[in-house]
Design a protein that fits this description.
Mean pLDDT: 91
Order of helices and strands: HHH
Low-confidence stretches: none
Oligomer: single chain
Largest sheet: none
Distance between the termini: 38 Å
Shape: elongated
Helix content: over 70%
Number of helices: 3
Structural class: mainly alpha
Number of strands: 0
């Protein structure tokens, strides 16, 4: 059960967006300092996580669409 929750693409996407927003905020506010900080690494990590999870979510949405089409065909027959 816990493994299913931690591997959920929606949870990964949500946490990646939270990391992206918070580290992006910090990065924008420290642009004038021209120093490299941990928030830059977290920003890159969050972008990679978002890109990584998009195909999984798209695949799931595709399966839902196919299931809806199949259900409609069965209802018409």
């Amino acid at each position: 059960m816990l493994r299913k929750i931690t591997k959920s693409p929606y949870l990964i996407l949500l946490s990646a967006f939270i990391l992206f927003i918070t580290s992006g905020y910090e990065t924008v506010h420290t642009l004038d300092e021209l120093t490299l900080g941990t928030h830059h690494g977290i920003l890159v990590f969050s972008i990679i996580q978002i890109i990584k999870v998009i195909p999984e979510i798209m695949h799931g949405l595709q399966e839902i669409e196919e299931a809806d089409e199949l259900r409609e065909k069965r209802l018409l027959n």
